[in-house]
Structure of Nitronate monooxygenase:
Amino acid sequence: MTEPLLASMRLPVICAPMFLVSGPELVIAAAKAGIGGAFPTTNLRTPAELDEWMGTITQALEPGDGPWAANLITHSSNTRLADDLALVAEYKPPLVITALGSPKPVMETIKGYGGKVFADVVNLKLARKAAEAGVDGMACISTGAGGHTGHLSPFAFISAVRSFFDGMIAVGGGISDGAGIAGAIAAGADLVYMGTRFLPATESRAAPAYKAMVLDAGIDDLTVTSAVTGTPASWLNASLEAAGYDPARPGAPAKREYSGDVAKRWRDIWAAGQGVGKSRAIEPVSEIVAKLEAEYRAAVAQLSEKVPA
């Protein structure tokens, strides 16, 4: 790993920013375990709370820990972007991940202190725009991702983006074990974006019932629908049913918006990706990462045996 961002990482994995789930505890635990940790700034209601979180994270981390990242919504509806960006400039996260808008509004600030900018993309149109904006990397959200999901195969997505982009690629969507990490790296990605595997972590802010539902779920216990937020997202069937939706016929797309009402829906209806089924206990991030590393090394060894030099 020659890229400075990756130099301190034990595994090429970012614990993905999860709405209402990722807090300082999860970010710090991920970085201490040697992977990347990220959180959405929308998890905080005010800039003052964001200031507190960023202060907590930066005080806890030391040289040699994995990188941490802030996930910024750059959509015009985010009236707090300027305030959040000012705090990013103060605390200098090594990585900033933009979503739901062009990365252009944040590029000058982040590159000014030496940080990296990744754009969250779900298709090639957005990927090309991100490349034109000069991003350092992309988080390619593929089919199988939890929450707002993509529709492209991760392998096809990596290949297509690599044809015009030589920056870093993080790919997310249904990857929840070490073999999946190895497969993504072999396909041309630099990093894996992993959320669902960390939902039931001890340090996750997911509600206890949410964690229990993830532990009980399998890949067939998910429904992708735009009926909840107006954007296709992957939800746990049991939580849809509890909220009055029929997973077989969830209904017409909801009005697409970014208001407090949508936040309430995320609190009541729980997202997960096709990585469900790998978690069978609530355990610390450190133990999850240790298992992922052992699986990753075994997969790399197996690949080396099957494809001798």
User: Anything to note?
Assistant: Residues 285-306 form the longest helix (22 residues).
